[in-house]
Amino acid sequence: xDAMTPALIGHALxxxxxxxxxxxxxxxxxxxxxxxxxAAFGLGLAxxxxxxxxxGVATAELLVGVxxxxxxxxxxxxxxxxxxxxxxxxxxxxREHADQQEQDQERGDHRSxxx
Length: 115
Description:
Layout: H1 4-29, H2 34-55, H3 59-78, H4 90-114
């Protein structure tokens, strides 16, 4: 085993971390459950960190992997990750409530004029 082998393995594991984070980002955009999303993230990080630690690869390599994963997770959260949006936005509910109040007031005005 020459001196370059641990570095090559470290780079391969870094690619696994980034690929698992990208997979998790895709799962975050789909309708996968949160368990599946976090399992994909965690699996890549756990495998990479254990292997890098066992190989004695520099801490900087692991730090780059963690930062790349964090960047991908941030991107996934900004572009649609997380729970699905409600079918009706809250401002629509407020508007409907205001419309209902106006209708109730109009009915009250008509009732008072009938009496």
